[in-house]
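hey so i finally got around to running both of the ones u sent me last week. sorry it took forever, my laptop kept dying halfway thru and i had to restart like 3 times lol. anyway pasting them below in the order u listed, first the sequence line then the structure token line for each. didnt double check formatting much so if smth looks off just lmk and ill redo it

first one:
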Amino acid sequence: MKTDSKLSYLTKRIIAVLFVLLLWQAAAMFIKQRILLVSPIDVLLRLTTIWQVEGFFNSIGFTCLHIAAGFFLGLILGTALSFAASRFEWIDILLWPFVITFKTVPVASFVVICLIWLSAGNLSVFISFLVVFPVVYQSLLEGLKNKDKDMDEMSKLFNIHGIRKLRAVTLPQIKPQLISACSISAGMAWKAGVAAEIIGTPNGSVGKMIYISKMYLDTDDLLAWTVILVLISVLFEKIFMWCLKKLID
């Protein structure tokens, strides 16, 4: 029964993807302007040859490394500070203006400001960090504040401290918040990081490749690079979430 349910879920998603592709194909055939919109078939054909572009793998590696670095930096710092803020209220109060600023200021504004302080090459790391940190911090802080106090008292009674308490008492209680925060912020990190690269155009990045495609009105390349980024982003999120669930289960 469970296998049938999974197959049904997968079938529905495949149908949804095919529906979107059909709409895309119909729109391309209706517009008949390759500069405005190319068909999914044209994009698929371009995907079979785009890896031959000079610097293709270096660009993929550059972008993946920088965005992943920003994501993990935001995850680690957000987690550490959420634990500290749950214990010391003054830390939460001091961090509140920064968290609100990171959440509300548009990414484009941050990118332009940060270009004054940072090199274009490091921009995607910092911007990815900025969007991941508040999501992780606030989600985990909320979970930690709503922990079952009786469980903490029980851990003291049975002399459970440190790593043992973290794994046996704390993690099971904040697991839903942690999984939700990581799932949301992983996708946000890629969107913000690539947006930063497109604006900052660091050499050897996917963002610069997209910017060049836009300059030359090369819609085939533009959409092909976009598809590649979507696939990498989804793959990154799936692998990371699988590892995270294995780690905290």
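and the second one:
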Amino acid sequence: MTKADDLTFAPDHARALAYFKRQPGYACSPLVERSLPLGDKMLVKSETTRMGLGAFKALGGPYAVFRILSARWREEGGGTAADYPDSGTDFQSFAARQTFVTASAGNHGIGVAAGARARGANARIYLAQTVPDSFRQKLERHDAEVVRAGATYEDSVAAAIADAEQTGAILLADGTWPGYTHIPKIVMEGYTVIAEELRASFEVTRKWPSHVFLQAGVGGFAAAMAHMIRANWAVQPELIVVEPEAAACLQASHLAGKPVRADGPSSAMGRLDCKVPSILALRVLERCSVTYETLSEEEGLAAAETVTGLGIPTTPSGAAGYGGLQKWLACKERPADFLPLVIITEAADTNDKVHLR
């Protein structure tokens, strides 16, 4: 049973931003202006170098690892200094006894693994058979134990849940379901940093976007961004959530009026290939006045090629927001103040550097 409070999302974005500003590897991700084919301008925010992990997920898993370890350290009598406890042999010994387990379509697992390694904890990551082996290799370079489980992302989620129940490991998922919402809220709170960086920039430049295109898998990133935009931006844009046609679980749930599964073939937009929505993300998006767009496999690949040609090497998942913009342009009339914003959420080849402390 899910209580109403479980689906309330009220992030403390100032806390998240303050945390990251303490990290030596933190920098505001680039926001640049580029031209569209017919001469219109667009704004592009690139997460491809974020915290040395090459994806926006560097703001989610590592932040949640820190918050969870801090809370548990306090519970074990670690003292009032647990707000920033990652020093001293007592904490190191405590962290070494903690294991985080999660399922991942790629970048979330890398974020959890990197965050755990940086704090001296352990990580065990479940991957479906469809996740490229390059992600397994990256996870292992972050000292994570990698387990292949099932043919789909949802299969790997079930395996991670079973592991946590059997071993007592800490389940650190980025999706939500009845009875499991608290930890994913922390992950989503980390993502709010992106919206706050953008708001601060627009307050200075006064170049507010008219449309924002947000790619989605289970929906945590899109929901965190939509919440922050509706709550804190002085000028309100249209919000368009972009999903693969093969995994449009949020759009299907919106049309059904309840969370539903969206079955389809595997998608080349692998980090977005999630057939079941986060119930929390869906609830947030439903109150944020968003519309939906879907991409075919060909459209996703074309978007990645175009964005890479603009000097931001990325994948079909990372460029899905741009793909949504291109599809929107094909059937919509541009308003006079048209200035779209897309967010490139991952690099084509994430590197192995970690800048967490």
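quick thing i noticed on the 2nd:
The chain has twelve helices and ten strands.
anyway thats it, ttyl
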